[in-house]
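Why do we care about 3D structure at all? Because function follows from shape, and shape follows, mostly, from sequence. That is the central idea of this module. The next example makes it concrete: a single protein chain, its amino acid sequence, and then its structure expressed as tokens.
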Amino acid sequence: MTYDLDHHGDAEVGAGLIDLAVNVRHQPMPGWLSAPIVDSLHRLSAYPDATSATAAVAARHRRDPAEVLLTAGAAQAFVLLAQALRGARRPVVVHPQFTEPEAALRNAGHDVDRVLLSARDGFRLDPTLVPDDSDLVFVGNPTNPTSVLHPAADVAALARPGRVLVVDEAFADITHRPGVPGEPESLAGRRDVPGLVVLRSLTKTWGLAGLRIGYLLGPAGLLPRLAAAQPLWAVSTPALAAAAACASPVAVAAEREIAAQVTAERVHLVDRLRHVPSVTVAGEPAAAFVTIHVPAAERIRLELRRRGYAVRRGDTFPGLGADWLRIAVRDTATTDRFVQTLTEVIEERS
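And the structure:
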């Protein structure tokens, strides 16, 4: 089956629509973040210097700066991996997941194998499904679009000598488990997993999609290969200022508060959705979005759009199909209005 791997949620958004299609928070930027970005605009005559931002990110994750590579968003990180690791014999992407890894691999000339997780199992990761001879594996945690958070032990079990294991943790900073400090199931601080590369994004939680900033954490022996595929001065001075600010203790504490709030809002959304006729929530959602199965989803999506709501179609994700939709977590009032509209659309069609 052919999938439109280049389709993203922003294509669903239009003037006057309430955006439930894009997984980016729509909150005002805090002063501790906006101030250094604004201040950096006075230094644009100089070429970007990533030294201090790299050190800040390394300190946050208790890594050596040599194990950090800043990138112009997560999308660039996927391209760097695909270009630098052209010699991979058998790349595998675990789906359903964000389509950019596979798109980047195919654009770089790789033949890509897909491992499809099952809705029957709640889209949970089964490490035994990945072929032993795969030397490059991509998996999301929590996974976009299913919102499933895999146990760290299951993800780490994918590691093998001679294999590069890429874990996309773009939404890890929004995960929360009551009574558990930090980011549950994250491997960002792990240095004992062979070949592990963890990808992080700063664009989702802090509403910086237009600034393009993310980073890779991985073995010091591998990252220079990725850096060699990166254009000179790839990350702008304002983006570097944002990276340093978002690695600060103030930012990490704020993330934990946001993660708890998003968790409560997601629980509310899931509870409401489970009372809507014909709707099934995928897996056990853990991120800032939820994926649902509903018959005639494409017609429902278009009718929701006519009534003022943009949601993400699911048929562009390998492993899903035409009866799936992804919905971003928003405040409870927005959720209540949306679910009421969704219910009316479904009942009118029955």
